[in-house]
Amino acid sequence: MSGMLAGKRILVTGVLLESSIAFHTARLAQEQGAEIVLSGYGRLSLVERIAKRLPEPAPLVELDVQDQGHLDSLADRIRDCAGGDGRLDGVVHSIAFAPQDALGGNFLETGWSSVSTAVEVSAYSLKSLAMACLPLMEERGGAIVGLDFDASVAWPAYDWMGVAKAALESTSRYLARDLGPHGIRCNLVAAGPIKTMAAKSIPGFETFREVWRTRAPIGWDLSDPDPAARAVVALLSDWFPRTTGEIVHVDGGVHAIGA
Predict the structure, then answer these.
(1) Most CB within 10 Å of its CB: which of 2, 4, 134, 191?
(2) Would the pLDDT of 196 be above 80?
(3) Residue 200: active-site member
(4) Which of 8, 41, 127, 158 is catalytic?
């Protein structure tokens, strides 16, 4: 099979609905020749149904990034379901969560328990996932790509998830430093807002619609995850062999426009 990911095996986390960037990343990766392994948490039957809409079947492994047992056994479970040498050439981190009291304008009142959950699941998990997959990547190298939302400014309603995304960005840079000697690149795609299940859980998410309507110089479609997914696939490929620690903005240019 031809394509920019031909012969590669990619783990894609976070495929829950067809509207997600992760789903479109998995679809595009398969179209570009990759073999895909999916991971899911909680509603695995839903993930299995959504996976059937991909061009090719994809095995599914359960992964709760807060469960050390899941992380410790991940490499072996991928070997079992993927067959062959069990290697991975790429990992897509599409995992984020914050309790409701950490969002929606409650920033000053949010307790540490909720903050720690947001940071652990949304940022620390990038390191946890990288280390869990390292045994499958360290011989040949590869690419880790995480999904981000620009954390250089404070957004309405985003609150502690914004802090967690800032931690994600920093974590990615340190992983780029420490995994580089293994030939593993680590980059992020900072996507503009997409109407996904995660977005619907953010109180005041609709305020982003007006921001992107007025400030995106080349326009932005909140219902189209494809541009961000294309960037993820490109970073997984061999076309960025010396790019690591980078944040690629796929947001219609909003990050570059002051007002």
Answers:
(1) 191
(2) no
(3) no
(4) 158
